[in-house]
Amino acid sequence: MTADRTLIDATACELVDRLRDGDVTGGDLLDALEARIGEVGRAVNALPTLCFARAREQATELQRRPVAERGVLAGLPVAIKDLTEVAGVRTTFGSPIFKDNVPDNSDILVETLERNGGVIYAKSNTPEFGAGANTFNEVFGATRNPWNTSRSAAGSSGGSAVALATGMAWLAHGSDMGGSLRNPASFCGIVGMRPSPGRVGATPGPAIESNLGQEGPMARTVEDLALMLDAMKGEAPGDPLSLPDDGSSFLEAARNGDRPRKVAFSRDLGITPVDPEVAAVCEQAARRFEDAGVIVEEATPDFSAAHDCFQVLRARSFAVTKAELLANHRDLLKPEVIWNIEKGLALTMDEVVTAEWQRNRMFRNVAAFFVDYDLLLSPATIVAPYPVEQRFVESCDGHVFDNYVEWLAIAYAITLVCCPALSLPCGFTRETLPVGLQIVGPCRGEAQVLAGARQLEEILDLNTQRPIDPKAG
To answer: For position 463, what pLDDT does the model report?
Structure first.
């Protein structure tokens, strides 16, 4: 069976319109995806778990409803990252400990998507517990970058990013603590957004008060991403940190034509080395805002405390959520996870207090920064896609990193200050590997970010909407 290429190449927004018009059915879209996965799936290993029978039942049930009752996605298929539970579908968290886990109940996030007309057909690959920005694990193996299958897709939402880039998904879910939505989006030439804390409700873990990790949308275009965020957003009684839905549409915000007045660009946020070629591609793209009359200045808030702050708060999160796994399944955990849990268990209260104060000061500094600037732009990642066998980036531009997460600072600095941020495809290296531009807005400023990103996407005109066939390295 050959995929209907006209469906595979279409945008999510176009297909939702066609679903509402009755021009296509959810079954047609599932058939096209199943065929496309058969064509390219083995080359990249992005969607290791499929649930098409469950999806077809859901699509059939949606088709019976009046069009007005099918939700904002109207029956569009959606891929879910394998860190998030879907009832009746194998959910491994990328760990041998849970390799046979089939949950009885879905995460709040999945329930919200299904209530809004999303049809779940696949689980996307992720590193063990999302730790490490390279998508590989002992259950399913490595996910490969479709632009060069010898390279990493980054992570931890690498499976979702690759599925989008290759036409095995129109919309996909991911999550982000240290850049896990933004890094793979940058490496794979798609759009990934970390929303403000609480924008997307989800089932809380043991660290119920933590807002370091957030669920978010991934897509091939800014408009499709906004559509997905509309389907994910909203208050959930089971998530005490979730924000109420004010009824506005992020898709409308992306389409409204608003452009920023003044934006800041920083090559490195003042805290990290960046590969010179990546920095140059990003700066050239940021400067294109000037074509639309936008003022572009070099500036950044003070993120000097980000490294120490994030390392402590991340380690604390690992200790709270995974200390029991370390005690009972140490032999099945990868070294990086063990290191993070043990680091968290060894923290002193003084270290935690200092980190919380550092985060508070950075948040206030950034809030003041956005009084003068509408957006902050920077590279989304500091390097181009690296060899897939390499567990993480060990050095950049002459600097050797202390640990396996330090290379992610340009993303985790933004995590700490609770700002929405997305990675927008902005160009390519000399090896034709994608580069992403990080676009950051003030806390709860998703509409502002999406509007600006859509403007720049149109100016750059990179034509990354069209999925690609995997290219051998």
So the answer is: 85
Say if 215 falls within a structural domain: yes
Q: Which residues are catalytic?
A: 81, 156, 180
CA distance linking residue 185 with residue 165, whole number of Å = 9
Tell me, what CATH number does 408's domain have?
3.90.1300.10
Here the tokens at position 160 are 């979702």
For the chain, the residue count is 473
The reply to whether 473 falls in a domain is no
For residue 416, the enclosing domain spans 5-460
pLDDT of residue 1 exceeding 80, the answer is no
Tokens of 101: 């886990």
Taking the whole predicted model, whether its pTM rises above 0.70 is answered as: yes
* Residue 373 binned pLDDT confidence (cut-offs 50, 70, 90): very high
User: Which phi and psi angles does 276 have, rounded to 5°?
Assistant: -55, -35
Domains of the chain: total: 1
